[in-house]
TrEMBL record:
Sites where the protein binds Mg(2+): D43, D82, E114
CDD domains: KPHMT-like (cd06557)
Cofactor note: Binds 1 Mg(2+) ion per subunit.
Keyword Metal-binding found: yes
Subunit structure of this chain's protein: Homodecamer; pentamer of dimers.
Compartment annotation: Cytoplasm
Residues given in the record as 3-methyl-2-oxobutanoate binding sites: D43, S44, D82, K112
Name of the protein in its database record: 3-methyl-2-oxobutanoate hydroxymethyltransferase
Chief location category: cytoplasm
HAMAP family found in the cross-reference section: PanB (MF_00156)
Pathway: Cofactor biosynthesis; (R)-pantothenate biosynthesis; (R)-pantoate from 3-methyl-2-oxobutanoate: step 1/2
Keyword Chaperone belongs to the record: no
Amino acid sequence: MKNTASLIKMKTQNEKIAMLTAYDYPSAKLAEQAGVDVILVGDSLGMVVLGYDSTVKVTVDDMIHHGKAARRGAPDTFLVVDMPFASFHGSAERTLDNAVRIFQETGAEALKLEGADEVVDVVKLLTRTGIPVVAHLGLLPQSAGVLGGYKVQGKTAHAAQKLIDDARACEAAGACMLVLECIPYQLAQKVTAALTIPVIGIGAGSETDGQVLVYHDVLKYGSHHLAKFVRSYAETGDIMKQGLTQYVDEVKSGAFPAEEHRFTMKEEELQQLYG
Ligand code: KIV
Ligand code: NA
């Protein structure tokens, strides 16, 4: 299993980090078998697994429920669990209670937090507590309402400078890794070069230390909209629908179950039963 030190080593040796989300036992197991370096139990599960239209309804209990299942599927992969909407805001005591619960109950290697400014203090608090933290800057889905939707961030020189400063602040506060979402590739390149910790991009070009994508997007599993920065590697949804449709057809036609699927009672037992 990778750890915070070996992930930094991958950065220094120019070995790309492959990160993927997973939300349950089978998806995490497949991710581990595929050789994924870091599994993220993202709060994107609210959209791709629970059917919400944003991530803000996802709760601490949801993250723990899915985090535990993913952990069982991938016992040997560095596992990161998202702290969900508003669970790391308000008092330090409440934040720490939520973080410790998610960390202890899921057995994750790290927690991920969206945002900078006051969130930098949370990065420091958790790190000092002994919880490795992955920072997340750029497009912050938990703040989509405030940002006015899911838009590319850091496009102006001013916004880009703020993001670079935020990234440095997260690293200084002890973050072990940084996710950059939906920003211009030139800015992602600059941040990656400026930091010692690994920088993982999603919609941030190819110059980061690694990439992360959502499981359901990679496998085209589900009917949700795919963003410009996604590449799908399999048409899983189509194959699944085909299989399910065939099952329904065969039940209706009587083609399933066949003889090989049935159990047989011995003739003498039948005699006894019916006389
Ligand atoms: O929740 C998630 O899937 C994420 C990734 C997009 C980085 O935070
Ligand atoms: Na997330």
